[in-house]
Design brief:
Length: 76
């Protein structure tokens, strides 16, 4: 957590986050609109994810498999 600073990945985050898992950083916690960033890390390689990959506006968990699901009518 970065308190009242922006949500960003620091050099310390990059050094500490070397396992295979999801990582999040939160910033501007006292603002009306706090910030959150999410990424997946695999042994020092990261890919940003939309926060909606885990959290949705209706507060129901999102199924990550849905992110890669192509509806049948969209298949070529």
């Amino acid at each position: 957590m970065h308190g009242n600073m922006d949500a960003f990945w620091s050099e310390t985050d990059d050094m500490d986050e070397r396992n295979g898992r999801l990582y999040a950083v939160v910033g501007k916690v006292d603002d009306p609109k706090p910030e959150i960033r999410l990424r997946v890390g695999v042994y020092g390689n990261w890919m940003s994810l939309p926060v909606t990959a885990l959290f949705t506006a209706n507060h129901h968990p999102a199924d990550l498999s849905d992110l890669h699901h192509v509806p049948p009518e969209a298949e070529i």
